[in-house]
Specification:
Elements lengths: L8 E3 L2 E3 L6 E5 L6 E6 L3 H18 L4 H17 L1 H12 L3 H18 L2 H4 L4 E6 L2 E9 L2 E6 L6 H4 L2 H6 L3 E5 L6 H12 L7 E3 L4 H9 L3 E7 L2 H13 L3 E5 L4 E5 L5 H13 L9 E7 L6 H9 L19 H16 L3 E4 L18 E4 L6 H4 L6 E7 L2 H9 L3 E2 L2 E4 L3 H10 L5 E3 L15 E2 L2 E2 L6 H7 L1 E9 L15
Parallel strand pairs: 7-8, 7-10, 8-9, 10-11, 12-13, 12-18, 13-16, 15-16, 18-19
Antiparallel strand pairs: 1-2, 3-4, 5-6, 6-22, 11-21, 14-15, 17-20
Helix pairs in contact: 1-9, 2-4, 2-8, 3-4, 3-8, 9-10, 11-12
Amino acid sequence: MRSIPEVPLIINGEKIRSKSDVWQDVVNPANQEVVARVPFATLDEVDQAVASAKEAFKTWRNSGQGTRMRVMLKLQQLVRENATKLAELITLEHGKTLPDAEGEVGRGLEVIEHACSIVSLQLGEYAENAASGIDVYTLNQPLGVCAGITAFNFPIMLPCFMFPIAVACGNTFVLKPSEQDPSSSLFLAELALEAGLPPGVLNVVHGGPEVANRLCEHPDIKAVSFIGSTRVGTEIYRRSSNAGKRCQAMMGAKNHCVILPDADKEVALNQLVGAAFGAAGQRCMATSVAVMVGKTKEWLDDFVERSKKLKVNVGTDRAADLGPLVSPAARERVRGLIQSGIDEGAELLLDGRDITVEGYENGNFVGPTIFAGVKAEMRIYQEEIFGPVLCVVCVDTLDEAIEFINANPNGNGVAIFTQSGGDARYFQNNVDVGQIGINIPIPVPVAWFSFTGSRGSKLGDLGPNGKQAVSFWTQTKSITARWTHHAQGVNTTIKME
């Protein structure tokens, strides 16, 4: 009989078996094979993790920036050396193709490399003689115990959006990865400990809403970062804010891609295919709406033919373009939304509902699906499908495209394909979306720039990565100081000269 691995918790630097009575199967989405079992940690175990982080903060906050930098340097080396294993774990439990998983590890590594610059990122400001004999300076100090709650779709990249910068700034951390694919996140945490993080600086707990709620409301946690669905993110933000914590919640999206008639047709269509259907559409930055302007609607037949050529298969097949959805429930939800599009009158140009993969008949596969004639009131436009489904909207002008996009409540990402610098500039200045791609369909910036989703896609003022992440994970203290060599007379004013 095959032994099924049990996913441990990490508390105070040790891997421990949870005492929980509630365990969940971790399932390979390509064949429904149980590959691990993950515990839903008890609230006592969550409290132990927080207490460990609180104790570790007493010394870690005073560690030298150089010490923290060297840990990040070692971590990036270990992640690089173990990139293949990390990608294989992602594919095993999430289902995305190995090349896509390797790309995810690379994006996570980019954030760790950025954290290696903490000695300059965390600098304060100083003004000598800001007033006569008075110096003013700021300190960017760590907050304390922080927490991160991540979604299933990027089990390496999303934790990297959180704990590397947080601990590099001198905080300690409790991570709750998705219970659907926890093994790669856990292995990443193990590498961080191997890199030199002291016991208690990084802890890992698993579970569902009860565990997440405890992290949001725990009195010793100072800040919470969340990436996932709008429904969950709204609740996380509400609970954390009500408990007096700093919170960032990066949430759902409906990302549009505008194609103008002067665009390079080959580039635009090929990029759109990849952005719409890569990772089986399970990306918060996936292109889920194509806005065809003017005569570009005549390119739809060509786009459909290109999409038909995509290979759907198990993620370990390196020739596959997209793998399965993460769970049977996700598959049924996507299939249901496709049916709703048909029922509401959208034109189904390509139907991926009945695809099967030989040898993996039980897999959660949905092939590329394309709807034309989509209206703003339809469910397939209103809801984030999180599957390989593209809605196509046709308009006559760029202004109509901008008006249509701005009417959508989400603001995660948007793209435009054009060869006109003037149109691109007009678009970026008038579209109300936080991240814009010009001839780039998925506009996630490099890690030393902040992730700047906006409107309904984000709660909180500061996003992950870049300067905003350092601001989120630190508190600024301003010091106004006067040192003199002689006694001063009484001064009852606050005037500075």
